Amino acid sequence: MNNFVLFLVSAILLCFAFYASPQAPAKMTRTSPVERGKMLVASRGCNNCHTPKILTDKETQLDITRLLSGRPADDELPDLPAIDFGPGKWGAVSSYDRTAFYGPWGVSFAANLTPDLETGLGSWSEQMFIQALRTGKHMGATQGRSILRPMPWQEIGSLPDEDLKAIWAYLRSLRPVKNAVPDPIPPQTPSID
Predict the structure, then answer these.
(1) CA 49 to the chain's CA centroid
(2) Hey, where are the domains in the chain?
(3) Distance of alpha carbon 52 from alpha carbon 73, whole angstroms
(4) How far is 2 from 4, CA to CA, in rounded Å?
(5) How does pLDDT run across 78-136, given as a tens digit for each residue?
(6) Is pLDDT of 191 > 70?
(7) CB-based contact 77:155 (threshold 8 Å)
(8) pLDDT given for residue 86 in this prediction
(9) Whether the predicted pLDDT of 156 surpasses 90
(10) Is residue 173 within 8 Å of residue 190, measured between CB atoms?
(11) 25 three-class SS
């Protein structure tokens, strides 16, 4: 029994010595704004909607050749389902690749976030980008059209300026993809007979 007590005391002291000993601090590495922006874009799920998909026989994969380029302009919109939206009913549906969305707001399309000058964010400034996410208005214009659902602009717009600037830096680092995303389609009003 004395050997067991001696073993137990030794084990406790060894554990205490190990955990109480000062350890070298972990090496801190500072990521570039582009790297941080890439991480933020990934963690916020931006690719889920803004990157077109490739449909294989087993799964749907991101089309990395069109990374964050939005709803493909050449994809036909499927027929809109006859759904009555509202409380206690359906709220929204999406295309198979989650780049087009249909709900009470009409039809919205995931935007081209690449730095293409004509069809993406290439003509935007960093301030316009931040303002758009803070206000929910396209191009950050106070009188601009609203950024439609399901884009979580309120959540992303609540990030600190440093994070929004990092996202902007990452988006500016992407390969520009020419892709003119369609304009939103307003909700269809029922015909009056």
Answers:
(1) 7
(2) 31-74+92-183
(3) 11
(4) 5
(5) 888 888 777 777 788 888 889 999 998 889 999 999 999 999 999 999 999 999 999 99
(6) no
(7) no
(8) 72
(9) yes
(10) no
(11) coil
Residues 48-59 pLDDT 10s: 999 999 988 888
63 vs 2: which has the higher pLDDT: 63
Look up residue 36 and give its amino acid.
R
Tokens standing for residue 32? 């570039």
Q: What is the pLDDT of residues 8-53, one digit of tens each?
A: 444 444 444 444 445 444 555 688 999 999 999 999 999 999 999 9
Q: How far apart are CA 61 and CA 48, in angstroms?
A: 10
Residue at 59: amino acid letter: E
Task: Enter the tokens of residue 129.
Answer: 């980008």
HEC-encoded secondary structure of the chain: CHHHHHHHHHHHHHHHHHHHCCCCCCCCCCCCHHHHHHHHHHHCCHHHHHCCEEECCCCEEECHHHCCCCCCCCCCCCCCCCCCECCCCECCEECCCCCEEEECCEEEECCCCCCCCCCCCCCCCHHHHHHHHHHCEHHHCCCCCECCCCCCHHHHHCCCHHHHHHHHHHHHHCCCCCCCCCCCECCCCCCCC
Residue reference for tokens 């307003």: 186
